[in-house]
Specification:
316 residues; alpha/beta; 6-stranded parallel sheet; 5-stranded antiparallel sheet
Length: 316
């Protein structure tokens, strides 16, 4: 059937070829918004001389996140380029990066143009991965784990014995935030959107039943207040909007920290309660894409800290 369709259109049928070969290819959308038009396109321009601060990888694994799905389906107006984390083996090193990387190094890379067989990535966006981390895991570490680490450690300053509310805890960020909070020794409260996700949090992460709440309503506020003796939580990791966002602000205990990783309310300039800040509350917004763009040194330090966590066995 495939041969008939191609011959009727006057085109040669497609042929299978090794993914790793002498051709540099990139996955692109021929028609933005139509997933069935994703195709491999030759990119000979990516075979030019390497910039001094970049390294070239032979791809081993590439991750995909919800933003990629939105881009591929044409739901982010004006954005057609998909960038995400990947892992691979170094095949070429720019002059300024030769003191940090060598050919054959196993590395992970953050926010790269990863849907290609030979990603070219800024050296500050890469890090060697230990032998204990396989390539699939390496491709899933960078952006999500960096978001979690920067949110809980740098901005949340979460300490042993403190409490944290993790919204949408069954999502990618939530599933990484939980083991880090457990490693720190924090008391974890979580929200999720279905019974199956509730079961996941209990069975995979050991979150007690009475510490899991619905992310679809604000009932969590009174329940967590009751469980904390009216004090609230020390840290909120939030990605939700509207009433849940506002009730979460009011749930932060004195001298607590509210870390926002969602965009909806901020992009829409939505109303935000301000009185809760009078309790010496710190409010922070985390956008790793912006950090990678304007402060690569900070991004590199965070990635280094995350890899050390994995290498030490603290998380896995």
């Amino acid at each position: 059937m495939n041969d008939y369709v191609h011959s009727s259109l006057g085109k040669l049928p497609p042929k299978e070829a090794p993914f790793i070969n002498n051709r540099v290819m990139t996955a692109e959308l021929a028609v933005p918004g139509l997933l069935e038009t994703i195709q491999w396109t030759d990119h000979p321009d990516m075979q030019r001389a390497l910039d001094p601060v970049y390294i070239k990888l032979e791809l081993r694994s590439a991750s995909i996140n919800f933003k990629d799905v939105l881009i591929a389906s044409g739901q982010l107006e004006g954005i057609t380029k998909m960038q995400n984390d990947c892992s691979g083996v170094v095949v070429e090193v720019g002059e300024n990066m030769k003191d940090r990387f060598s050919p054959s190094d196993r590395v992970c890379a953050m926010y790269s143009r990863s849907y290609t067989n030979f990603p070219i990535v800024h050296g500050d966006c890469c890090h060697e991965i230990p032998d204990s981390v396989d390539f699939n895991k390496g491709a899933s570490i960078s952006i999500v784990w960096m978001t979690v680490y920067y949110s809980l450690m740098d901005n949340g300053k979460l300490q042993k014995g403190e409490s944290i509310l993790i919204h949408s805890a069954a999502g990618a960020v939530g599933q990484d935030a939980i083991p880090l909070a457990q490693h720190i020794g924090a008391d974890i409260f979580a929200t999720c959107g279905s019974d199956s996700k509730r079961d996941l949090l209990k069975q995979e992460f050991g979150i007690p039943e009475d510490h899991i709440f619905s992310s679809l309503a604000v009932a969590f506020y009174d329940k967590i207040k009751g469980l904390t003796g009216g004090r609230g939580v020390n840290v909120v990791l939030n990605s939700l909007s509207a009433d849940i966002f506002r009730e979460s602000c009011n749930l932060v205990a004195p001298f607590g920290r509210f870390v926002e990783i969602g965009r909806k309310d901020l992009m829409e300039d939505a109303l935000m309660p301000m009185e809760f800040l009078l309790k010496n509350i710190t409010f922070a917004y985390v956008d790793m894409a912006l950090m990678i763009q304007v402060n690569k040194a900070l991004a590199q330090r965070i990635l280094h800290d995350v890899i050390n966590l994995f290498d030490s066995g603290a998380v896995g």
